[in-house]
Amino acid sequence: MSRIPKLPVAAAKENKPGLLNRRPISRTLVNGLSDAEKKNLLLQHTKTSDADRKHLLQNNSKPTVLNGPSSSITAARLKRTASAPAPGTAPAKVTKVEKKPTVAPKIPPYDYKARFNDLLEKHRVVKNEYNDLKDKHTEVSDDYEKIKESGETSARERDMLKDKLLNTLNDLRERTTALESIKLDYEIQKRENEELVHKTKVLAEVTSNLNKKTSDFDTLEAEFKEKTRRYNALLAESKVLKAQSEKLATLSIDYDKLTVDYEEAKNKILKYEADVEKLQNILAGMYQGQRDLRNTIQDLKGNIRVYCRVRPPLDSEMSKPLFNLNVVDACTIEVEKVELNSMSQSTRKGKSQHTFSFDGIFTPHSSQETVFNEVSNMIQSALDGYNVCIFAYGQTGSGKTYTMEGGCGSEQYGIIPRAFNFMFTCMEDLKRMGWQLSITASFLEIYNEVIYDLLNSCKDQSNHDIKMVNSKGTDLYVSNLKEEEVKSSHDFIKLMIFAQRNRQTAATLNNERSSRSHSVTQIKISAINEKLKEKYTSHLNLVDLAGSESGKTTQRMDETKHINRSLSELSKVILSLQTNQSHIPYRNSKLTHLLMPSLGGNSKTLMLVNVNQFDECFGETLNSLRFATKVNSCRTVKAKKNLTMVDT
Ligand SMILES: Nc1ncnc2c1ncn2[C@@H]1O[C@H](COP(=O)(O)OP(=O)(O)OP(=O)(O)O)[C@@H](O)[C@H]1O
C-alpha cells in the first residue's frame, strides 16, 4: 500500500489556510475595506477554497485497495482526475498509459496451469501498474513537495499580506477615525459657518435698521432743534405777549374810550365824505365852468394868437451892431433902423421905423417859463378837446428851436417838454373828475416836401403820405408814422431826445438840414369819462418851422424854394381863412396840408414869431413881423370841441 499524503490535515496542523482550517474573515476588518478591496479578497478566498476542495477530493477519493482490472481502471481514472490541473495552478506533468482492451479466453477451472499463468500474467500487469503507480507517486510526491513549498511560500506571502492588510486596515481604521473626526470637524465648522452666515444676515439687518434709525435720529434731532428754536422764539414771543397783554389790559380801558371817540369820528368822516363828494361835484362844475370861460375868452381873443419873441444876443455876438427895438407895451413892438449914407457912413440917409402889434411880446429877458405860462392856455385847450397848433416862425438862428424845444436842464425846457409836464399835472385833476386820458406822440420832419419819421432810424422814408381819417376830411394822419404811447413826462423826454438825435444825424449827412426843415411834434389826446358818458380826441401840433430867410448857395436855393413855397402857402391859407374864402388851399404844400385840422376853423392856433435884433437881420426881421401881422389879422370861426357821447 502506497502512502497517500493527507495535505489538509497537515495543513491544519501547520495552521495553514485550508478548507478545514479556514476562519471567516473578520467582519469588522472587511467593513473597513473599500468595495474593490472587498471584491478582491472574496475572489482570493474563493480560489483558495476551490484549490483546497480539489486537494481534498484528490486525497480522499483515492481507493486504498485496488482489486482487479476495474480497480486499475478506477485508479487510472482517479490518476487522470488527479493529474488534471486545478484552476489557477500550473498543470501537473501527466504520463499517458496506453491500454489495449484485451478479451481473455475463458479458462476452464480445471486448467490450473493456465489459471496460474493467467494469475502470473495478472500479477505481472498489476506489478507493472504498481511500478507505474510508484513512479507516479514519486512524481506526485515531488509535485506535492514543490506545491507544499510553494504553498508555504504562499502562506508566508499571505501572512505578510495579512499583516499588511491588518496594517492597512489599522491604517484605514485610523484614517477612517481621522476622517470621521474631520467629518465631525467639517460638520461643526459647517454648522458654525451656517451660524456665521445667519449671524452675518442678522448683522446686516441690524446694521440696516441701525442706519435707518440713525437717519430717523438725525431727522428727529433736526426736528428737535427746529422745535427748540421755535420754542425759544415762542418763549420770547410769549414774554413779549405777556408784556403786551399787560399793556393791553391798560390799553383796553383807553380802547373803550377810543371806541366811543371812533364812532363819533366815523360819523364825522361819513359826513365829511358826503361833503367832499358834494364839493367834488361843485369843483367839477367849476372846472367845467372855468374851462368854458377860458375857451370863451380865447374865442373872444381870437383863435389865431400871435406872439413875438426877441432873442438876446449870445456872448459871442455882443460885438454885433443892433437896430433899435422898443417894446412899446405888452403887445406892441417898435423897430427902427437908421439908414446911413453909403458915401459917408457918418451921415444919416434916413430912418426906417415900424410898429407891430401882437397878442404878446416876449423881450430878450423873457424866460422860458414866462413864454410857457402864456402858451399853457392853448395846451389846456388841447386837454379840453380842441385841436391846437403852436408854431415858431422866424429866420435861421432867431431862436425857434430854443423856444419850442429849449436847452439843457429843466429851466431851459421849451414849450414842447413843458407842455408834457403840464399835461400830466392836469391829467391828475382830470382823473379826479372821472376822466381817463391816453396820450400818444409822433415826431416828423418835412424837408424839401418829403415827410421823415423821426422815431424811425431807417434812411429810406419815402412812404409817408398825409391821409384823411374819415370821409369828412376834418381829421388827418400820416401813413406809416410811428406813434408811441406816453405814460409820463420822462417817457416823453426820452422819445424827444431820440427824435432829436435822428434829426441831427440827418443834419450831419445834409449840412444844416435841421435849419432848412420843418419839425413837427404831433400829440394825440384821447379822453373818456364813464361817469359823464363823454369822450373826445384832440390833436396838438407843435411845429418848429424852417428858417424863413432866402438862401445864398445853389443847394440853399433849392431848399429855400421849398421853404418859401411852404411858408407862402401857409400865408395863403391864413389869408384865405382871413377873407373867409370858400376854398382854402391847404393841399398846396405838405406843411399846410398837415396843419389843416389845426389851422382850420375848428381849431386854435398860436404863432410865435422869433426875431433877432442884429442890424444885419433887420430886413428878415421886418419880413417875419409882417408875416406875423398878417397871421394875427386872421379871425377864424369859433373853435369847436371834438366832444362826442360814449356809446352805451
Ligand atoms: N431866448 C433865448 N435866450 C437865450 N438864448 C437863446 C434864445 N433864443 C435862442 N437862443 C440861442 O440862440 C441860438 C440859436 O437859436 P436856435 O437854434 O433856437 O435858432 P433857430 O431859429 O431854431 O435856428 P434854426 O432855424 O437854424 O434852427 C442857440 O444857441 C440858442 O440857444
Question: pLDDT under 50 segments (min length 5)?
Answer: 1-30, 45-53, 59-97
Query: What is the CATH superfamily label of the domain at 303-311 and 363-645?
Result: Kinesin motor domain
Q: Could you say which overall geometry the principal axes of the C-alpha atoms support?
A: elongated
Strand content of the residues, in percent?
15-25%
Total number of helices: 12
**SSE string:** HHHHHEEEEEHEHHEEEEEHEEHHEHE
Query: Helix coverage percent of residues?
Result: 40-55%
Judging by the overall fold, what is the CATH architecture of the domain at 303-311 and 363-645?
3-Layer(aba) Sandwich
Written account of the structure:
With 648 residues, the protein is an alpha/beta fold. It has a domain at 303-311 and 363-645: 3-Layer(aba) Sandwich (Kinesin), CATH 3.40.850. Helix content is 55%, strand content 16%. The protein contains twelve helices and 15 strands. The chain has helices spanning 7-13, 27-31, 35-60, 68-83, 112-301, 368-383, 400-404, 415-432, 489-509, 554-578, 590-599, 618-632, and strands at 304-310, 324-327, 332-340, 348-357, 360-362, 387-394, 435-447, 450-453, 466-468, 476-478, 484-486, 518-529, 534-544, 603-611, 643-645. The strands form three sheets. Strands 1, 5, 6, 7, 8, 11, 12, 13, 14 and 15 form a ten-stranded mixed sheet that branches. The chain has a three-stranded antiparallel sheet with strand order 2-3-4, covered by helices on one side. A two-stranded antiparallel ribbon has the order 9-10. Helix 6 crosses helix 8, helix 8 runs antiparallel to helix 9 and helix 10 (554-578) runs parallel beside helix 11 (590-599). The longest helix has 190 residues, at 112-301. The radius of gyration is 77 Å and the shape is elongated. The model is unreliable at 1-30, 45-53 and 59-97 (pLDDT under 50). The chain binds adenosine-5'-triphosphate. Adenosine-5'-triphosphate binds next to helix 7. Adenosine-5'-triphosphate (ATP) binds at residues 311-312, 314, 394, 396-402, 407, 514-515, 547, 610.
